[in-house]
Amino acid sequence: MTHAPFIEIDGRAPTVEAIAPTLAGYGHFTAMQVRGGRVRGLAFHLERLDGATRELFGTGLDGERVLEYVRHALAGAGREDAAVRINVFQPGDAPGEPVAVLVAVRPPAGVEPGLKRLKSVPYQRPAAHLKHVGGFGQGYFGRRVATAGYDEALLVGPGGEIAEGSVTNIGFIDGETVVWPSAVPYLRGITLQVLEVALEQAGVRQDSRPLRLADIPSCDGAFIANSRGTAIVSEIDGVPLPTTAKLLTQVGELYDSAPWDTI
């Protein structure tokens, strides 16, 4: 069943005039899972929103303003547990003009259980360091691979260099090391950043280096991660991957135990 989101713009019910500028398809967003009025990696979310607002619109975005709108929308939706998306856009078109903040609240969501099968596609997102709107390529390839029976599209560049999933980051296991693909461009997702901190605190080695599709058979495992959580990958392009590495389980446990921040 599809649930219509509860939406507010700058803490108010949206009018047609207020929501019309979003049709231009220029802006950015962050997505989070809220439980009990708390979220993992809150500081990373606020840094993402402020940095992207400065780059796209030439002005900053105060974190407390964002949190006030999120609290108001959660209260209006009557939810402490929710999937929350925060979109930032500019009602006008002159650099430096004030931005508007749209908050959409939906029922909470998590990773579907089970191992994940990935299909590579020759695509890299434009301005991929930003979580920007208008991701047609991601949606196009995500739907194509889903129709073919896969769970996620794996975006690769020239020479088969692995970048990211269509809506996920991907990490690989090499012995006792978590390896993050270093392809440029790609998005440093919030869950990736939360995991980096958790892995460092647990004393787990991490590396960032180029990885190509040809390297997959030599990997000891892989996982994907986004705001819904983490999941183990069982195959990429029909090439099976080990799924029983201790470090794969540890990655999931570390994320599940990561601290929650009050909104």
Automatic annotation (TrEMBL):
Gene3D superfamilies membership: 3.30.470.10, D-amino Acid Aminotransferase, subunit A, domain 2 (3.20.10.10)
Pfam families, sorted: Aminotran_4
This protein's UniProt keywords: Aminotransferase, Lyase, Transferase
Coiled-coil stretches: none
Presence of the UniProt keyword RNA-binding in the record: no
Molecular function via GO: lyase activity; transaminase activity
Identification of the protein by name: Branched-chain amino acid aminotransferase/4-amino-4-deoxychorismate lyase
Lineage: Bacteria, Bacillati, Actinomycetota, Actinomycetes, Kitasatosporales
